[in-house]
Amino acid sequence: MAKTEKRQKAQRLPREVTDAIAAAEDKKAVDITLLDLRKAAGFADYFLICSGTNARQIRAIADAIMEALASAGSKPAHVEGYDRSEWILLDYFDFIVHIFAPEPRVFYGLERLWGNAERVELSTPTPSRQPRADSLPSAADTP
């Protein structure tokens, strides 16, 4: 871990944020990062940053997050980049979701730009991402 990188222990997060993380994980988002901006900025409490591998997956991640939060009564105040699907931004006021293609994520480097924000440690792997017990090799399978 870099000297300037700050990490927070797992904390109790707002339900909307955890629902957004779960929806992103369900659509196989990669490199999921949560930045706590409460001490760094006044316009949002958290940035949820993740990536998809192609435009279809990036839109699917955005759709899943919007559907999950809509079922709880939340709609994004603003959506940007959905048509191009290189960087989709979903603004929920208290937190902002950034869904990137790999190249724009590296180019814009939000984690670097918001280096004074604390990274929230997410519990991983989640049950939906753990391998099934019956898919793991057993001792009998090894020579």
Q: CATH topology, what is it called?
A: Beta Polymerase, domain 2
Shape: globular
Considering DSSP H and I runs of 4 or more, what fraction of the residues is helical? 25-40%
Number of helices: 4
Total count of strands: 7
Q: How far from one another are the termini?
A: 38 Å
Poorly predicted ranges:
126-143
Second rung of CATH, namely the architecture: 2-Layer Sandwich
What is the subunit arrangement here?
A: single chain
Q: What is the radius of gyration computed over CA atoms, rounded to a whole number of angstroms? A: 16 Å
Main-sheet strand order equals 1-7-2-3-6-5-4
Q: Could you say how many structural domains there are in total?
A: 1
Proportion of residues in extended strands = 15-25%
CATH class: Alpha Beta
Mean pLDDT: 84
H-E order: EHEEHEEEHHE
Indicate the structural class.
Answer: alpha/beta
Largest sheet: 7 strands, mixed
What name goes with the CATH superfamily? Answer: Beta Polymerase, domain 2
What do you see in this structure?
By secondary structure, this protein is an alpha/beta fold. The chain has one domain (13-116): 2-Layer Sandwich (Beta Polymerase, domain 2), CATH 3.30.460.10. Helices cover 27% and strands 22% of the residues. The chain has four helices and seven strands; from the N terminus they run E-H-E-E-H-E-E-E-H-H-E. The chain has helices at residues 15-26, 55-70, 102-108, 110-113; strands at 7-8, 30-36, 46-51, 78-80, 87-91, 95-100, 118-120. A seven-stranded mixed sheet has the order 1-7-2-3-6-5-4. Helix 1 (15-26) packs antiparallel against helix 2. The longest helix has 16 residues, at 55-70. It is globular. Residues 126-143 have low confidence and may be disordered.
